[in-house]
Amino acid sequence: MSSAFPAMKILQPLSTTRSPEKPLFDLLKSPSSFLGSASKLRFNAQKPSPSSSYSSSCHRPSTIVAVSDVVKEKKTLKSNSSLSNLLITKEEGLELYEDMVLGRAFEDMCAQMYYRGKMFGFVHLYNGQEAVSTGFIKLLKQEDYVCSTYRDHVHALSKGVPARAVMSELFGKTTGCCRGQGGSMHMFSKEHNLLGGFAFIGEGIPVATGAAFTSKYRREVLKEAGCDSVTLAFFGDGTCNNGQFFECLNMAALWKLPIVFVVENNLWAIGMSHLRATSDPEIWKKGPAFGMPGVHVDGMDVLKVREVAKEAIARARRGEGPTLVECETYRFRGHSLADPDELRDPAEKARYSARDPITALKKYMIENNLVNEAELKAIERRIDEVIEDAVEFGDKSPLPSRSQLLENVFADPKGFGIGPDGKYRCEDPKFTEGTAHV
Amino acid sequence: MAAILKGIVATSVLSSSSDFVPKGVQLPSLKSLPVSERKGGFLVDGSDAKVVPVSNARARSAGRLVAANAVAAEKSAASTASKTGGHELLLFEALREGLEEEMDRDPRVCVMGEDVGHYGGSYKVTKGLAKKYGDLRVLDTPIAENSFTGMAVGAAMTGLRPIVEGMNMGFLLLAFNQISNNCGMLHYTSGGQFKIPIVIRGPGGVGRQLGAEHSQRLESYFQSIPGIQMVACSTPYNAKGLMKAAIRSENPVILFEHVLLYNLKERIPDEEYVLSLEEAEMVRPGEHVTILTYSRMRYHVMQAAKTLVNKGYDPEVIDIRSLKPFDLYTIGNSVKKTHRVLIVEECMRTGGIGASLTAAINENFHDYLDAPVVCLSSQDVPTPYAGTLEEWTVVQPAQIVTAVEQLCR
């Protein structure tokens, strides 16, 4: 059997104790900010296990501090503030900023396009949650995998899928990343190792577990020594009550798969509040129950997310197994563009708008003299152009023709079988026209 | 050794004295014969208009059909088995042999399922493989069908070729989400970017008083899923060939085995062979009626055929093997010859494979039919535990005989 896992350091972000009379989450009543944001988080890295095949140095515990706290501290410092105290370099900061602005601008454009009748069906927008996508995915290599849910546009963009390809896909055009066959909820990219895009919640988690399994298999069975791909599985709070979530936590921990389970806890599953659906709402606690660390992080703060992500991804790459990361975040828009969003308290929404991750990062970078306003404005203008170009590209692209109808049903089209004339159906010339009888 | 069947029709059928062939019984293999034409004529006895088929002394053709254009390349090993000898084994061993050959051939092929590793598989199909290939290649999973099937899908998308074993096919109902949504659909919704070369296999069908939930026939539930192929094996020969074909296929394939057929013994060729996933198998050529069947019902049909032959009928028996898609060429040629169709299946009546097959035949070959297609299926009843009730749930040879007699009146 596998060696005993090292002792888990469970993060305890709350200093408040929980009593039966006083609910843990009482957002409507308490004016304080959402749990985790104001407190310091200490993430103690795991000591590498002796069976790990990677050499690793000892890890010092790093203190993750809220952006707002840093800002408060740094305000008093003037010219003697040294850049090495900061969590990011200028280049990294610009990269993060650009990625988040891209995500936000893209989603805003989606809303516009939807209401103008350019895209249809169920469209789920990511506004407000950009810190999670950017914080995690910008640390990945091309050969790492990302598996998402229906709220996948921004995961696709962060992973490197061009905005043109995503917009085109949303327009249902043949130049979309899935040839127009997937739509908003099924973004896939083989080139960028984006494994979807799933409409049913929870069904992407086993797929992500499978990708992590492949990574381990390639290393241990196929002896590809350099293979250390990590998989990130993104999903929401609602999914954490689903069987597939628990089954995969078990398997991933059992086989020490290189995967990070990222929970985007935005407190709402359409109209179902997380607190009304979950017996123990602290999702990060469910990690240790299965033998993996459970980490809780402020998902509105990209720098905090990034620090946690760094360690979780490194842990997976070293072969030490999975991590469960719960990111507390919030979606500024409704569940989908069809959701009237009447249940959520406007005060709650206002509280989160004030913690907009893009504004927070901007503030951090400017007040630490990493960048100036002009550079950020330049990025915003550039992103606007990218989005305009994506829309134009989508508009000009052709709709799929009839010939595409039967093409990708089977990887091997012999699967359509043999017709009465003895020929395979796919050999029928009408097959490529999409009008063959199958 | 393969029995060479000549001459009189009466002796040239597979014989089985009971519902299933007991362990160790050797079936004469018709498939080891060279494919040849059957010449024969009919004597019509004017007095009661009974048709008496007469054939001259010719070996019966069986096994692989000669489909002109559509046949995928098939090694013609079966025809030489009678000369080189081949080797005898049981059906579950044939499955294992096919599996092992493919695992040797391609290191990306791996197995996942409950008790497939150390236990060797609940029906011993994977016995010894974990020792040979290791615990990662023959993976013992926890009891989480939906998730490990999904995990296999993810592994297939990222380059492996997994084989998922459902300990009993019925357990795969828990994996329906992954089989339908992911297996079947992801190649299409990803615009062709990801392929899912997965094999999902396991024993199903009505056994010996296993109770309702262990006696399910899932082929009817899965058949509507676009993007998957389904095959059912029935002999050691086709079990090994279909297993290998399914593993090599780039499409997701569901391979249906039957709980009661694992101990069938047969002599199969030593040479490597792979069968076509899309083709049906001609079991017994005939002139009077086309009987379409698959899996265990093949043996009930052949038992009934013995009786029928004694009564002077000449049924053509086709094991359709490919449940989705149907081999309309083989089936069509047969319908055009006999003009009468009887389907014998173990699926439930409602929405079963027989129902789809009836529709397909009516649609494509209506002009050739002299009588409506008759479909004998299991009762729409949860399989009872009691032996007598269970027997009445599935189609028995006597019913097949009656149906043919009525059809050929």
From TrEMBL, chain A:
Family annotation (SUPFAM superfamilies): Thiamin diphosphate-binding fold (THDP-binding) (SSF52518)
Domain (Dehydrogenase E1 component) ranges: 99-400
CDD domains in UniProt: TPP_E1_PDC_ADC_BCADC (cd02000)
Cofactor requirement: thiamine diphosphate
Keywords: Oxidoreductase, Pyruvate, Thiamine pyrophosphate
Xref: InterPro entries: DH_E1 (IPR001017), PDH_E1_Alpha_Subunit (IPR050642), Pyrv_DH_E1_asu_subgrp-y (IPR017597), THDP-binding (IPR029061)
One GO BP annotation of this record: pyruvate decarboxylation to acetyl-CoA
GO MF term list: pyruvate dehydrogenase (acetyl-transferring) activity
Entry EC no(s): 1.2.4.1
Catalysis: reaction(s): N(6)-[(R)-lipoyl]-L-lysyl-[protein] + pyruvate + H(+) = N(6)-[(R)-S(8)-acetyldihydrolipoyl]-L-lysyl-[protein] + CO2
Record-linked NCBIfam families: PDH_E1_alph_y
Functional note: The pyruvate dehydrogenase complex catalyzes the overall conversion of pyruvate to acetyl-CoA and CO(2). It contains multiple copies of three enzymatic components: pyruvate dehydrogenase (E1), dihydrolipoamide acetyltransferase (E2) and lipoamide dehydrogenase (E3).
Quaternary structure and interacting proteins, as annotated: Tetramer of 2 alpha and 2 beta subunits.
Name of the protein: Pyruvate dehydrogenase E1 component subunit alpha
Organism the protein comes from: Nelumbo nucifera
Gene: LOC104593397
Automatic annotation (TrEMBL), chain B:
GO annotations of cellular component type: chloroplast
SUPFAM superfamilies in the record: Thiamin diphosphate-binding fold (THDP-binding) (SSF52518), TK C-terminal domain-like (SSF52922)
EC number of the protein: 1.2.4.1
Catalytic activity entry: N(6)-[(R)-lipoyl]-L-lysyl-[protein] + pyruvate + H(+) = N(6)-[(R)-S(8)-acetyldihydrolipoyl]-L-lysyl-[protein] + CO2
Keyword line: Chloroplast, Metal-binding, Oxidoreductase, Plastid, Potassium, Pyruvate, Thiamine pyrophosphate, Transit peptide
Pfam families: Transket_pyr (PF02779), Transketolase_C (PF02780)
A GO biological-process term: pyruvate decarboxylation to acetyl-CoA
Leading EC class: oxidoreductase
Necessary cofactors: thiamine diphosphate
MF (Gene Ontology): metal ion binding; pyruvate dehydrogenase (acetyl-transferring) activity
Gene3D superfamilies the record matches: 3.40.50.920, 3.40.50.970
UniProt-annotated location(s): Plastid, Chloroplast
Domain (Transketolase-like pyrimidine-binding): residue spans on this chain: 89-264
Function: The pyruvate dehydrogenase complex catalyzes the overall conversion of pyruvate to acetyl-CoA and CO(2). It contains multiple copies of three enzymatic components: pyruvate dehydrogenase (E1), dihydrolipoamide acetyltransferase (E2) and lipoamide dehydrogenase (E3).
Oligomer status and interactors: Tetramer of 2 alpha and 2 beta subunits.
The name this protein goes by in its record: pyruvate dehydrogenase (acetyl-transferring)
